[in-house]
Every structure is written in structure tokens, then in C-alpha cells.
Specification:
The chain has two domains: 205 residues, no CATH class; 55 residues, no CATH class. It is 60% helix and 0% strand.
Length: 281
């Protein structure tokens, strides 16, 4: 419903209502964790019993987020399988590199860059397979990334997956054109909705892992979030429990966590990332 309003229904129903448009933009932006959380449930097959329904609903959620489901699912499952690999520890400050030298790229990635990577990654499926493989090899060089390269190549050379990603990209582009036409002079509201959502998701992307050891693997932080508002983040403050039990439905995460010690407030874990790059053991 919120996505439908964002993609053009609102300006058709309430043309020229600037105050309402700003309220809508704020609602769209702050509901990003819920939107992504529902998509996240479909990635793990936890929303519906039938895998086909998880894929169908997940793809709709991905298109309206501007992040195609197949590439997001691949990236997220790779995060589970290869947690804390070279591309999954953006806060890591390697030996010999200064804070001042690493900070600009880190904060750019934190504020928006993570989501931009997810938004651009689907275009790998548009490239011919040999070209796609060369691009992936340039992006992930070295022996440490060999397994990730192989998995990427295997996934995005699959004809069925490539076709789905292309379809979702075309759908997003067409919806964006229709939305821009509907918003007209208020096009900036729609742009704010898209960029705002991407920014929120970018900031949240690594919050549960920030500052953890390089060999933490499947470990992640469990934090506190008001239980009455837990639906807004689908209990992903229990990220450590999720990593240990990825097949658990979001509603079962608090019970699985029980009375164990947590790592403080969820917002504290999000804010901690703004300390910048850190040395990791």
C-alpha cells in the first residue's frame, strides 16, 4: 500500500498536497526496515510454505524497493555462508592504512554506498556471461575471494535467474517512469523516497556486525528494541539468533533468544558505526 502511494497513487489522489507528500516520504523512508524485512523473510523461505510464493512476493517487494530479489537473495545468503569475508567487513581498517585515508570511502559506503552496490549489482545479469565473469573477477580479485567468484558466476550465468533479474529491472524502470510522470513537479518527493530508503538500508546493512572480530563467522549482535514496535524491524535486532537459526520465522526470534545478555539498544548499535573504520583482531 505504501509502495503504491509512493509510485504514483498519492499524487493522483492528492495532487499538489505538499505537506501530505512530505509525510508520505517520511513514512516510506522509516518503513524501509519493515519493507526489507518482509523481503528478507521470503529470501529464507520463511514467509510462505511454498518456495514459489516466496519468490513471487519477494520479487514484488524487491521491484518496489528498486533492489531485484534474485540478486539481493544471493548477496544475503552469501553473507550467511561467507560472513566477514573481504567484502563483508567494511569497517575493517587494515594494518598500514590510516583512519583519515579510509574514512571517506567508509562513510560514503555507510550512508548510501551499500545500497547503491545492491542497486547496481543486478545489471551484471544484463551483460553477456563472459563479460560478467570478467567484471566479477576485477571486483573480487585474489585467492580469498575465489569461492565467492565461483558462486557469483554460477548464479548469474543461470538463464532462468538472468531472465528474472532482467524482468525485475525493466519493471522497476517502467514503474519509475510512471511515478515521475504522476508526481510531475513534485518528482523530488519520489526521488527522496527512493534515496531515503536506500540510505536507511545502507546504514542498517552492517550494524549487527560492526566491530566484531574477523573470525566471528556466524556470530552477530543481539540488541534491544521495544517489543511493541518489533514489527517495524521484524525482530532483526536479534540478528545473532537469526544467524544461528536462519530458518526461524521472525516472530520466533525473541523466544529463541530467551533471557541471554544482549549488546545494548538497537539504535546504539546503529549509531556505533559512525565511529568510523576500526582495527579488527
Amino acid at each position: 500500500m505504501i509502495a503504491a502511494l509512493e509510485f504514483g497513487v498519492f499524487p493522483l489522489l492528492f495532487p499538489g498536497w505538499s505537506a501530505g507528500a512530505v509525510i508520505l516520504a517520511a513514512t516510506v523512508i522509516f518503513s524501509a526496515p519493515l519493507h526489507y524485512g518482509l523481503m528478507h523473510e521470503t529470501m529464507h523461505g520463511n514467509m510462505f510454505r511454498a518456495s514459489e510464493w516466496n519468490r513471487r512476493v519477494g520479487r514484488v517487494l524487491g521491484v518496489t524497493l528498486g533492489l531485484p530479489w534474485e540478486t539481493m537473495r544471493f548477496g544475503h545468503l552469501a553473507h550467511h555462508a561467507f560472513n566477514r569475508h573481504e567484502f563483508d567487513r567494511p569497517e575493517h581498517l587494515p594494518a598500514g592504512k590510516s583512519y583519515a585515508g579510509a574514512a571517506p570511502a567508509y562513510f560514503a559506503k555507510l550512508v548510501l554506498g551499500n545500497a547503491l552496490i545492491y542497486a547496481l549489482a543486478p545489471y551484471l545479469a544484463v551483460l553477456p556471461v563472459p563479460t560478467m565473469e570478467r567484471v566479477v573477477a576485477r571486483m573480487a580479485p585474489g585467492d580469498d575471494a575465489a569461492v565467492l567468484r565461483q558462486a557469483t558466476s554460477r548464479t548469474f550465468s543461470n538463464p532462468a535467474r538472468r531472465a528474472m533479474v532482467r524482468t525485475d529491472l525493466v519493471s522497476f524502470v517502467l514503474l519509475t517512469i510512471l511515478a515521475a510522470a504522476a508526481w510531475r513537479a513534485q518528482w523530488w518527493v519520489f526521488a527522496l523516497c527512493i534515496l531515503g530508503r536506500w540510505s536507511v538500508l545502507s546504514v542498517l546493512d552492517n550494524a549487527a556486525h560492526y566491530g566484531m572480530p574477523l573470525d566471528s563467522r556466524q556470530e552477530a549482535r543481539n540488541t534491544r528494541f521495544p517489543s511493541r514496535l518489533s514489527f517495524l524491524v521484524l525482530n532483526q535486532n536479534f540478528h545473532g539468533v537469526h544467524h544461528q537459526n536462519p530458518d526461524l520465522h521472525w516472530s520466533a526470534l525473541p523466544q529463541a533468544f530467551g533471557t541471554a545478555d544482549d549488546d545494548g539498544p538497537w539504535l546504539g548499535a546503529v549509531a556505533r558505526q559512525f565511529h568510523g573504520p576500526v582495527r579488527l583482531s
